[in-house]
Amino acid sequence: MLGRGLSTKRNLLVRLRPIAFIAVLLILWQIAVSRSPAHLLPGPWDAAGGILDLVRHGLLLKYIAASLFRVTWGFVAAAVLAIPLGLTIGWYRRAELAFNPLIQIFRPISPLAWIPIAILWFGVGDIASVFLIFLSCFFPLLLTAINAVQRIPSVYVNAGRNFGLSPAHLVYRVLYPAVLPQLITGLRITLGVAWIVVVAAEMIAVNSGLGFLIVDARNAGNRYDLVVAAMVIIGIIGLLLDLGMRSLEGAKSLRWDYSED
Amino acid sequence: MPLTESVTTPAATKLSAQHVHMTFTRDGKSTPVLNDVTLEVAKGEFLCIVGPSGCGKSTLLSAIGGFLSPTGGEIRIDGQPVSGPDPRRIFVFQERGVFPWLTVEGNIEFGLFKLPRAERQRRIAHYIEMVGLVGFEKAYPAELSGGMKQRLEVARALAVNPDMLLLDEPFGALDSITRLIMRGELLRIWREERNTVIFVTHDIDEAVQLADRVAVMSGRPANIQQIVNIDIPHPRDLSSPRYLELRNGILTQLGLAHQV
Lengths: 261, 260
Fold this sequence. Notes:
Strand content of chain A: under 5%
Distance between the termini of chain B: 53 Å
Structural class of chain B: alpha/beta
CATH superfamily of chain A: MetI-like
Radius of gyration of chain A: 23 Å
Number of helices of chain A: 10
CATH topology of chain A: MetI-like fold
Radius of gyration of chain B: 19 Å
Mean pLDDT of chain A: 87
Shape of chain A: globular
Largest sheet of chain A: none
Number of strands of chain A: 0
CATH superfamily of the largest domain in chain B: P-loop containing nucleotide triphosphate hydrolases
Mean pLDDT of chain B: 86
CATH architecture of chain A: Orthogonal Bundle
Number of strands of chain B: 10
Strand order of the largest sheet of chain B: 6-7-8-3-9-10
Order of helices and strands of chain A: HHHHHHHHHH
Number of helices of chain B: 8
CATH topology of the largest domain in chain B: Rossmann fold
Oligomer: heterodimer
Largest interface: A-B, 23 and 23 residues
Low-confidence stretches of chain A: none
Distance between the termini of chain A: 38 Å
């Protein structure tokens, strides 16, 4: 009994450690800001005040919703198009040979380089930023899907054929489960990228959202407390998105790897 | 035509491979792997194929399974030419063939999709018990040992009631103690089910312990050098003079006798 009490106590301490570490950093930040003569950065206290300010004006939830809305649509559209296309290209060796040069040319182009074209095509607004997020997700997901199919060990496909599966069943009962763990990892990483890109897209292409908030706070009277407040919110939401995707990866039917044993 | 063929083929013949040739072509270079392989396997027989590694044993087995088509000659099962994989003959890979995303139950159920639910449940329970995986129904392959995964793959194969099992070095990745146990298990299951078994191995002891007949293959391009009848009843005494004689005969055939 005593031992268990001790170990839960120790567990709690381990869990509290990162929080305590963050608290120490916040205190150091506050001390450094209050001691420096020049206003290089607002302190954590100011930033917290900025967040409260945003809440009071009803802007915080509105901007978070606007940013999440764009990320969701861009991300979902990219996933819906890129994954089936990637799986098909990966399955047919000839398709991969045909498409690969094109993909390799488009892939290194930063989605931000598309901003002028996005605005030209869709004007300033939601569609332009959704399009940019779509682009930032599409190529990484396409490559993930292509790689995932190509990595399926042939024993699984052969076993599926051996048991008399029709092509549709082979896709649903062998290919799909075999690529799922890799796809989910790819989706998690891509969602992180989308969350980075939405901030940049909102700085230029729209007038709402957390990215817009950062530019707007600076332009409208150098409200750096709001800038830092927005950065903190972006960080926290990014963390939550990642934790959400990671919890998917933990499912038992997904926790395996070809390289095991 | 097929009618006259099935009349001329004796009823007891399960598999008949006639003058099978296989040549792989890669980057414009062709490599002959099988050179005029002729083989007959009787219904319910346990045949082992041994030979030097890389000689084409697995290629022959893949052709019998319908995964590869021979570049020459013909393979017939029950008088019908083999045209592709078929649930009536299940290929068992080393234990890597089990699906890691399915539980033990899910793996055994994999090939049973055409059966009604009650029958599926019955077979799952039956084969889980037969291969000794009771209590592991909900376990994923990652939680099983190598030997258990191998038994699971055999159970998955048997669950569809195949009339042939094609085993490609199934125990190759197991430690020597597990391998001995698995051989005993396989013989016990074979005696219950009486499928035709074709078992590829590079382990001569394994072949002599298990098989009714052992087909000895030459180096590449391979053909069948000799077929040895193992006329020792089961359970086999591994130190009996007849066992050692047969084993040495095969070693000599492969040019490996008294080498170490």
